Structure formats: structure tokens, C-alpha cells
Amino acid sequence: MIAGCDKLARKYAKPGVSPMGDRVLKTVVFDLDGTLADTSGDLIAAANACFQGLGVGDLLDPVRDASTALRGGRAMLKLGLGRIGRGEDTDEIDRQYPVLLAAYEKAIDVHTVFYPGALDAVDVLKVDGYRVSICTNKPEYLARLLLRRLGVLDQFGALIGADTLSVRKPDPEPLFEAVRRAGGAPELCLLVGDTQTDHDTARAAGVPSVLVNFGPNGPIAADLEPDAMIDGFAELPDVVLRLIGPARV
């Protein structure tokens, strides 16, 4: 048994949960955008819909600006408006943000695809006994809509979005809540992500971080010095085992 796990098993023991840890399970928590799925194309299209409405045409490029897309709607609006000298126009960004969300909701799964092997890795982890959940800074209703449209919402034990709680990543509480709602123990998890925010969230929570070395943010992953990096999802189950051990305490 891993050092300290017997103490954790006692901590989480309650009616219906064996003090031997039968239900004290470890959890793998995934970021969504840029980690499980490449959502950048649909995000860029939503931002460009805002710019079209302003009469300035498409200001963002789906390839060149993909990494900005994965930082969220306001980042895209600031970048695009900056190209016409209005990047500091916070009032316009505030006006356009709900317009962007509405456009994104209407066409949320046109270009979005899961990264190769992502869902296979999720299945392997579940077979191995791990709980799996999602913790994203995408608004919860949009994250749920996207996963439902892609037919995979029920494959995850929990989903925490940017607005599910009063705080968001890199605060550790959304990560902990994603673990709790999946039925796991908060201290017994790791976070798989792609950004500084994901890395900082894991550090704040005191748990391992795994960053993907692909997608738009891949080039910066190594500089963050995560506990592990993966070049593809086929590597993930072995990395999880190495970092947090078998699924059951």
C-alpha cells in the first residue's frame, strides 16, 4: 500500500464505504479544450462571427490563432480587435462576449474532433478502475452541450465548468469537486491538461500534472516542467500508474 493511503482510507470511510478502501478510488481529471479535443476551429469561427457583425471581416486564422482560441473567448476578442487597433476596448469585448457564446452554441461541433486515442485512453483507465472526470474553464452548459453532441457525456463521472463553482482553475477547488462528484478522494488524483492554467491548478492542489505535448500549446509544455508529458494518449495509462499507482487504495 502507498504510504499514507491507509490514513486516507480511514478519512473517507463512511456508511457504505469500506475502511479498507473498496470505494476510495483514484481519479484522472481531464481538461477539455486542447487536451481531450481540438475545439479551436469552432471557437475561432464564433469569434469571427462577432467581427463579421462589426463589419470588419474575419480577423482570426484557424491555424495561426489556435492557441489563443484555447485560452477563451475574451482572449480571442482581444487579439482580433487588437488587429484593428481596438485591443484595449474592454467595453466592446464585453459587448461581443455574449454574441460569441451564442454563435459558438449554434455551431459547437462543426470542426471539433477528439485527439487520436483520447477516448481509448479514457476507456482503458476506466477498465483499470480509475474514476474519470472533466474540469474545464469552458462554461458548464457549453461543455455539456459539446460532449452531448459528440455522444460522450456519459463516459465521464463528472463535469465541472468555469461557472459551476464560484471559483475556476487555477483555483484547486474545481479540480477537487470534479474528483468528489466522480466518487473519488480529492488527494488521490492527477490532472491532464495542456496549459499553464492546468499546471498551476495541479500545483495548487498538490497533485501531479500531466501535460500533452501536442495541439496548439504543445511547444510550451516542456517549459512548465510538469510531472510528466505525453506525446500521445496511448502513453497515458502507464504514466498514470507511475505517478499515482493502481486505481484502488
- Quaternary state of the chains: single chain
Report the sheet-strand fraction.
5-15%
Helix proportion:
40-55%
Number of strands: 8
CATH architecture of the largest domain: 3-Layer(aba) Sandwich
Q: What is the H-and-E element order? A: HEEHHHHEHEHEHEHEHEH
Structural class by SSE content: alpha/beta
Q: Count helical runs.
A: 11
Radius of gyration: 19 Å
Low-confidence stretches: 1-21
Span from first to last CA? Answer: 7 Å
CATH class of the largest domain: Alpha Beta
Structural summary, described in words:
The chain has 249 residues and is an alpha/beta fold. The chain has 2 domains: 167 residues, HAD superfamily/HAD-like (Rossmann fold); 67 residues. Helix content is 42%, strand content 14%. The protein is built from 11 helices and 8 strands. A 6-stranded parallel sheet has the order 5-4-1-6-7-8, with helices on both faces. It has a two-stranded antiparallel sheet with strand order 2-3. Helix 2 packs across helix 4. The chain starts with a helix and ends in a 5-residue tail after the last helix.
Task: Spell out the key features of this protein.
6-stranded parallel β-sheet; 14% strand; alpha/beta; single chain; elongated; Rossmann fold; 8 strands; disordered N terminus; 11 helices; 249 residues; two-stranded antiparallel sheet; 2 domains
In a few lines, what is going on in this structure?
The chain is of the alpha/beta class. Helix content is 42%, strand content 14%.
